[in-house]
Amino acid sequence: MTTVRVATFNVENLFARYRFESNIDPMKAVQDGWRADQTAFKVADEDEKRITAQAINALKADVLALQEVENLDTLRRFRNTFLGGRKIFPYSIAVDGNDPRLIDVAVLSAYPIVHVRSYQHQLNPKGDLLFSRDCLEVDILLPNGATLTLFVNHLKSMLDKKDPCNGRRNTRAKRMEQALEVKRIITNRFGTRAGRKPFVVLGDMNDYMATDAQGETGIADLAGWSQLVNVVDRMPPEERWTHFYKGNRSCQIPPSYHQLDYLLLSKSLATANPHAPQIERRGAPKRADRYTGPRFEGVGTDNPKASDHCPVWMDIKVEK
After folding, report:
1. Given 3-state DSSP classes, what are the helix, strand and coil percentages for the chain, each rounded to the nearest 5?
2. Within the chain, how many helices (H) and strands (E) appear?
3. Can you tell me whether residue 148 is helix, strand or coil?
4. Within 10 A of 31 (CB to CB), how many other CB atoms are there?
5. What does the domain layout of the chain look like in residue ranges?
6. Which of 77, 233, 283, 306 has the smallest count of CB within 10 Å of its CB?
7. What whole-number distance in Å separates Cα of residue 61 and Cα of residue 63?
8. Which CATH architecture fits 2-18+42-318?
9. Using one digit for the tens of pLDDT, what is the confidence trace for 81-103?
10. How confident is the model over 211-265, as pLDDT tens digits?
């Protein structure tokens, strides 16, 4: 039996955004129109990235699912600069997905990644791309020879710029469609009794389970599926939040704290691991004042911060 620490974290716009030093001619620093001399630029928003890295390093995760990563090169540069490099996470994967802002899902792992499958090209009945980003299927080979499968997701946002007062309600159908497709993907691989297999559905689902003035949930078919267990439900209700929303006065929407980030363990894994996960909040902005504990050095009222989400992690025993 192997115990693996699995975590998920929406790192909020982990972009390269390279900024050339003031005395550098970019035309001379870039080779053959593509490869840039890395000594000629520095990473923008270094304070923010440093705090994000503090949150990740504090997790001490073996396997980390990430959301909102620009691309694999950016992820590896961030890993090498702030996370201790390949000796900490020798394995990494990110696949460019569908988001026009270039935010992708990704995985960093201490253990070999032996299988990767993207579902970014899935279409809905209308012929539109189904996933806002992707559902990234990743197999991790553990030291005991067992394979742990991850389904890494970042579902449709609740934001509706044209109608901000009804964002959750207006975007619900898209999340429902995506949640049902993730369920179908898992069933196709593991069967109707998929919960007997060792896998985790994780990531930013961009919705919560409760019905409120903003509408009903769009993720119940996945997060409430009998083959999965939302282990965050094992925590006290007031401790389950992973995201703070500042509200919208013009829409009369009050500030709120909700779980948007999920570790959904297969039923067999959840049964073998009856404990609760943990949520790392020291990188949260100070405006999220429900959290009254210590914060990482440099965290501000709104910025800089680790992210607008809090990472969730859990030690999981996996049998071969």
Report:
1. 25, 30, 45
2. 6, 18
3. strand
4. 9
5. 2-18+42-318
6. 233
7. 5
8. 4-Layer Sandwich (3.60)
9. 999 999 999 999 999 999 988 89
10. 999 999 999 999 999 999 999 999 999 999 999 999 999 999 999 999 999 999 9
117 three-state secondary structure: strand
Q: What whole-number distance in Å separates Cα of residue 142 and Cα of residue 163?
A: 46
- Looking up tokens 């975007």 gives 171
Please, are residues 13 and 103 in contact by the beta-carbon 8 Å criterion?
Answer: yes
Question: Using CA of residue 188, residue 189, residue 195, residue 199, what is the dihedral sign?
Answer: negative
Say if residue 102 is exposed, middle or buried (CB neighbours under 10 Å; 0-12, 13-18, 19+): middle
Q: How far apart are CA 296 and CA 90, in angstroms?
A: 26
Tokens of 127: 């012929």
Token pair 């996996």 is found at 318
Q: Is 102 left (phi over 0), alpha (psi -120 to 50) or beta?
A: left
The CA-based angle 39-41-46, given to 5 degrees, is 115
Which of 193, 180, 233 has its CA nearest to residue 209? 233
Name the nearest CA neighbour of 64 among 136, 155, 145, 156.
136
Mean pLDDT over each residue of the chain, to the nearest integer: 93
Nearest to 120 by CA among 149, 100, 141: 100
Contacts of residue 291, Cβ cutoff 8 Å, sequence gap at least 6: 281, 284
Question: Contact at 8 Å (CB) between 91 and 318?
Answer: no
- pLDDT tens-digit series, residues 222-236: 999 999 999 999 999
